[in-house]
Structures are given as C-alpha cells and as structure tokens.
Amino acid sequence: MRLLFIGLPLLELLGLMVVTDRIGLPATLLEIVLSCALGMIVIRRSGRSIKALLQRFQKTPPNSLWSIIRPLQGLLGGLFLCVPGVLSDLIGLYLAISAGGRNDAETGGTGRGTPGPNPKSPTIIEGEFVQEDLERLN
Asked: What are phi and psi of 115, to 5 degrees?
C-alpha cells in the first residue's frame, strides 16, 4: 500500500516530465487544463445520472448491480481526469469511456442481464417440447 502512495505520484511526475520534454511546457499545461475540464464535464454528467438513478430507485428497486456501478464508474473516471498526470488521465479516460454513452438512469434502460424492457412481463420462448423415455433411448 505504501508503494501505491509513493510510487503512483512518482510515476505521474515522471510521465509529466517526459511529456513536457517531448511536446513542450505550454502544450503540457494545455493538456492538464483540458483533461481537468473534461473531468469536470464527466463528473457533472455522472452526477446528473446518479441523481436520476436515485430518484428512479425510490420508485422501484434496482434490477441489476451494473445499473448502480455504471454512474459511479463515470464519477471515478472524472476524478482521475482532474488529477494532473499521464497515468491518471489514461485511467480516467478508460473509466469514463467504459461507463458508456448510454445512461441507464436517464433512458430507463435495463442494464446487463435483465430479461427485457419490462422485468415483470413474462418471457416466452417459442418451440416444441418432447419428453422421451430414457430407457427407450438406450
């Protein structure tokens, strides 16, 4: 755990020094400002979806764990984007992108692993069912 608290800031500092050496100080400062602005946008968007999610969960319980995790993943991605550094920007971009463009809370989507648009509607699988005697098959 100590390695994480000591090593991660050192890796971030090293990454910023390499980027500054490659593209220059003004471009590096611009990258830091733009990534922080993008992080604020992602946080604001995730905050709205979390608020809508909580309002929806007051009416009906959550239908999957994924519908709870997705907005929190976007919030964490936005926080990582606000931290200056190359490694945290990459982690933040990954989390923000994998949180998805579709918001389960706003669109009323079903998330992963749910039966359909209305969980209370019956699932009908069409086909034929034939029960045969196992002794006759052997």
From this structure: -70, -25
Give the 3-state secondary structure of 18-70: HHHHHHCHHHHHHHHHHHHHHHHHHHHHHHHHHHHHHHHHHHCCCCCCHHHHH
Burial 66-81 (b: 16+ CB within 10 A, else e): ebbebbebbbbbbbbb
Alpha carbon distances (Å) from 87 to 3, 20, 32: 16, 14, 12
What pTM was computed for the model? 0.64
pLDDT (tens digit per residue) in 75-117: 899 999 999 999 999 999 999 888 765 544 444 444 444 455 5
Q: Which contacts of 70-74 are long-range, i.e. CB under 8 A and separated by 24 or more positions?
A: 70/99, 70/100, 70/103, 70/104, 70/111, 71/46, 71/99, 71/103, 71/104, 71/105, 72/46, 73/98, 73/99, 74/42, 74/45, 74/46, 74/49, 74/99
